[in-house]
Amino acid sequence: MRAKTIDRIATGVIVAVAVLIMAVLASLIGYLLFRGLPHISWHFLTSFPQAIKAGGGIGPQLFNSIFLLVLTMIITIPLGLGAGIYMSEYAKRGPITNFIRLVVEVLSSFPSIVVGLFGLLVIVNTFNLGYSLLSGALALTVFNLPMMVRLTEQSLRSVPQEQKEAGLALGMSRWKTITSVMLPVALPSIVTGTVLAAGRVFGEAAALLFTAGMSSPRLDFTDWNPLHPTSPLNPMRPAETLAVHIWKINSEGLAPDAGEIAAGASAVLVITILLFNLGARWFGRVLYRKLTASK
Amino acid sequence: MIEIEKLQLYYGEFQALKNIRLSIPERSITAFIGPSGCGKSTLLRTLNRMNDSIPGVRIEGRVELQGKDIYSADTEVESLRKRVGMVFQQPNPFPKSIYDNVAYGPRLHGKLKKADLDELVERSLRAASLWEEVKDNLKKSALGLSGGQQQRLCIARALAVEPEVLLMDESTSALDPISTTKIEELTRELSRSYTIVMVTHNMHQAARISDRTVFFLNGEVVEAADTQMLFSSPVDQRTEDYISGRFG
């Protein structure tokens, strides 16, 4: 009888905690959407922001966020995959490897404002890249890369040893075994993790304040030559992202509808990240089915 | 077929195999028996150099496959493993379709026309007596098969790269009795065209299907003889104790 009572109490507590967390999350998202959704319109998503007048949009910021994400991923994915494969398959066990792993873990939990200041000192000033998309992408790489490395390493490690041996025993080289046996098995979780990491990059603000900058040039969305200073594709131009924009108009916005714009932009940000998460799960599942021929 | 000469194997300080001399005849089944930790699996895995990747392993002596030392500097491990296939204790099909599992090795080792590949897959699955059960479901996932079917699929996958030797590391120990019988019959069948070396925990299995039996104890070969001889009139007292169930 006593064991049963304790069991009931424990179940009750756990359910209560779960409900509490759900409630907090749901009310948070609900509040953001409730405040922001009414302001979202096609005009809001595509037009330029206004400094003093009402009716500004977030077009360039949305574009900047997406473009910066793409740039960051172009840098991080190959590096992260390579380092992760090295850590899980090639690195010899020992103090040096453990030290590298420790460094990677510390890096991935770095406060992003520190990454931003590091970016300002090293990337923006020392390397003289200025406030630019490229600087922003490199700063984001600093804290996204460790996540990619860990993710790849852990995904590869979770591939059963038997699978690896099966590949080797068929006369495949180590590299062939990694690329044709282990990576396909690990790929769905790598992809899911990458998209989740992308969500974090998309919402990042602090690391970008001093690297990608807090302003955008007057972009000309008809000029797609990456070498022109007002071209959206120019990686050397400053670029205020959506998250930075929210921070900026909240703290120093002069437009009469600054509050509404911040709310609308926040809702866009949250919706995008939600879509990333759902998309990651869906894509991971589809990929797993496709690669493993399971229904 | 395989000649092992003065083979010593160390895991760091620990000597797992001591001065092994053994010859394994062609187109027959040789069974390695002995209690856990006696080195029988370790020896099996030296025959296709699967021990190479374990840190701290050191090997001395010679292992000759058709007169050529497989541990010589000019041996390519990949082509050795193509000639010496392996089936593991746990069925380990790739999480892919049945067809892709069997076609995996051939695809990586060379370009084959679709028709030739189809034929090779069918031949391998027939040789592993699995064809009749899966021929209508070749595109289905291998993970949907039963344990015994999965193990026969692994045999088919190993056969598809056309090896000369097939190593079986306790390949029935994870299976039910009916699947075990099927694999045993299949193994007998395969020994007409392949040299088979099997490790088994089950003495009766060795007695039932092998041509020669090697008894291991503490990293040494105690006795190697024709199976009938070894089980009916063992020369060494320790062999007799083991097969009569006094230890192990």
Automatic annotation (TrEMBL), chain A:
Family as reported in the entry's similarity comment: Belongs to the binding-protein-dependent transport system permease family. CysTW subfamily.
TM stretches of this protein: 12-34, 66-87, 99-123, 129-149, 181-202, 261-280
Entry's Gene Ontology molecular function annotations: phosphate transmembrane transporter activity
InterPro entries per record: MetI-like, MetI-like_sf, Phosphate_PstA
Record's subcellular location: Cell membrane
Bilayer topology term: Multi-pass membrane protein
Residue span, ABC transmembrane type-1 domain: 62-279
One Gene Ontology CC term in the entry: plasma membrane
GO process terms (BP): phosphate ion transmembrane transport
Protein name: Phosphate transport system permease protein PstA
PROSITE patterns assigned: ABC_TM1
Pfam families per UniProt: BPD_transp_1 (PF00528)
Source species: Cohnella lubricantis
Record key words, sorted: Cell membrane, Membrane, Transmembrane, Transmembrane helix, Transport
Record-linked NCBIfam families: 3a0107s02c
